Amino acid sequence: MIKGAVIGLGKMGLSHCAIVNAHPDVEMVAVCDTSSLVLDAFKKFSSILTYVDYQDLIQKEKLEFVIISTPTRFHFPMVKYALEKNLHVFCEKPFSLIPKESEELIKISNNKSVVNQIGYHNHFIGTFRELKRLLQQGIIGELVHFTGEAYGPVVTKEKGISWRSKPEEGGGCLYDYASHVLNLIQEIIGRPMKVSGSQLKSIYSKGVEDAVYSTLTLNSGLSGTISVNWSDETYRKMSTSIIVHGKNGKIICDATEIKIYLKEPNKKEGLEKGWTIKYITEFAIPVNYYLRGEEYSAQIDYFIDCIKNGKQAIVNSFEQGHYTDKVIEMILANAKKN
Amino acid sequence: MDKVILGDNQFFAVNHASDEKARAQSIQFKEDAAIIKVIDTAINLGINTFMCTTHDRIANICDHMRANKQRYWDFNIYPCMPYAHKYANAFTELGIVGTIKQYVPGNLLGAFAKGGIAFLSKDFIGLMELLIDAEMKMFKGLNTPVIFIQNVLVDMILGLKMYEVFSHYDSYIRKKYSAEPGYITMNMPLLLDALNSIGIENPIICSSINKIGFRMSGGIEIYQKYLNEKQFRPIAMQVLAAGALHPKDAIEYIGKFPKIESVLFGASSKSHMQETKELIEANIK
Predict the structure, then answer these.
(1) What is the pLDDT of residue A179?
(2) Residue B139: DSSP 8-state
(3) Could you give all domains of chain A from N- to C-terminal order, each with its CATH number?
(4) What is the ipTM of this complex?
(5) Strand ranges inside A135-293, DSSP E
(6) What chain A residue is nearest to B163 in terms of C-alpha separation?
(7) How far apart are CA A176 and CA A193, in angstroms?
(8) Which residues does chain B have within 8 Å of residue A257's beta carbon, measured at their own beta carbons?
(9) Do B187 and A289 touch (CB under 8 A)?
(10) By mean pLDDT, which of A106-120, A202-216, B99-113 is the weakest?
C-alpha cells in the first residue's frame, strides 16, 4: 500500500481525499487543515489522522506522497518542504503565484526521483485528449485562429469573503478559471509567447477580476483569444471550451462533445466532409471510483500509477504548471499597461 | 415503486452529452408553466412518479401541486437532495462555514442556540437533520414515499468511508418522514457493499445502468454481477448512456435484469415519453 496525505481540505481537497481513500493501492494516512469543523468530522466519522500543521504531519507520519490543495499562496512553502522530505507531490492548480517560486520547485524536484504533478484535470477529459490527437494529425490543416472560453456562476452577487476574493492569496477569475483555459491551450495547441489586449474586469467582486479577456500569440506564430467569466449565471456549472479554426475545417470541443467540420473528408480518421459530432461516451476514461467527473479520479490514478512504476508524469508536470504561471504573469503585466 | 419514473434533468439544463442541448433546454423551460405542462402530459400518459432535485424552481412546482390538490393527490415525488451545484458554487465562493451559514435555515445562532459553529462541530448529525429539513420544506403536504441523497454527496461519503453518516440518514428519513431512504451513486457495487457493512439491507439504489458501461465505475461486469446476485432494489438511470444508445436496445438490455424495479428517464415531448414508457413496461416485469 502506498501511504499518502492530503493537505488543505477545501472543495478540491475533500474531493481528492475521497478519491485517494477509495483507491485500492493507497492507504490514506492523514489530513491537514486549519478548520476545526472539517477536522472534527474526520475525527468523528473516520480513522484518518488529523493535523493542523503540515510540517508536523510530514515529520510524524511515514508517507510516500502528499496532495497539496491549499490556497495558492501556500503552495510554494508546502511543496518545497514536501520535496525536501523526498515525497511525491500532487499540487492543485495554479502551481504558484510567483513564477520564480515554481521555477525553484522544478529545480528541487529535478534533483529528486519523485513524481510531480499539477491538478489541471481537463487533460483527463476524453474529448480534450481527442482534440489534441486530431490536431497532432493535422486534420484541419494549417491553423488560423483559436478561441478558449470558460464560463460559470461562481460570483453572481456583490459579496464574497473567502481567499478567492483576495488577489494576494491567488483569488480572482484569472488564477481560478482562466488558468485552466491557458493550460489547455498551452498543452493542446502551443505555448503562448506573447499576450496583448488583456483586460481584467471586475463585475461583482471588489479587489479581484470576475472576467479575463486576452489575445495570445503562440510559439508557432498562431494567435487566438481567451474569454473567461466566472460571473455568468447562464451556466449551471463551469463550462470550458476550445474552438480551433484551420484552413481545412474547424473543431469545437468541450467536456461533453467534440464537433468536427471538415472541408474535405479524412479517410485515415474515417471522418466525412462536413460535420461529425462525437460524444464523451466514446472517450471517457474508465475509473474504479467516480466523484463529480472521471477526470478527477483519472488524474489521481495516473499520479499513483507513476509512483508505482517509478516514472515521471508527462501530463501536468510541474514544468507545465510553471509555464502557465508565467502566462498568467504576462497577462497581469499586460492588463496593467492597458 | 412505479416502473416508470420521470426525471428532471431536462428542466434544469443538465445534459450529459451536450452543453449546447442543455442550453436549449434551459431556454425551453424558462417558465415554470412549461415544466408543469410536461408533468401533466406525463400524468395523462399514466406516469405517476417524478424524481427531482431540490432546485429552487421545484418549490414553485410544489406550490402549484398543493394549490391543485385534486389533480395531484396521488402523484408521487421522489426528492433528491441536495441540489449539489447550489452548494458547490457557494463552497468555492464562501468556503465551508460560509456555505453552512448561507443554507442553514434562519439565523445560525438561533438554530444552534448553544454557540454557533463551535457547537456545530460537535453535532454533525444535528446539522445534517437541519439541512434535510430545510431541503424537505418545499415538499410539505405532498407524497414523498422515497427520499434520495444525490450522488455527489453519497459518493463523497463513500470515498471518505464515513459510512456511519449513511445510517443516521437512513434512520432519520424513516423516522421523521416515514419514507424509504434512497441513494443515488456512480459507484453502485462499492456503495452496496458499504451499506451492507453497516447493516443497511436491501437498499434502494439509483445508478447508471446501460449497455455500454457509461458512468458504471469499476466496469460493466461487476455491475452485472451485482444485479444478478446481490440483494437490493435497483433503479436504472442513464439507460440511454447520454443518448449514445437507441431506446429500444437500451431498454431491452435493462430487461435482462429482473431485479431492476424502475427506470428513471428524462423527456420533454409527449411522443418521447409515450415511447419510453411503453418500452419500459414491455421489458420490465
Answers:
(1) 98
(2) G
(3) 2-120+292-317 (3.40.50.720), 122-285+324-337 (3.30.360.10)
(4) 0.92
(5) 143-151, 192-201, 211-218, 223-229, 239-246, 249-254, 257-262, 274-279
(6) A45
(7) 21
(8) 17-20
(9) yes
(10) B99-113
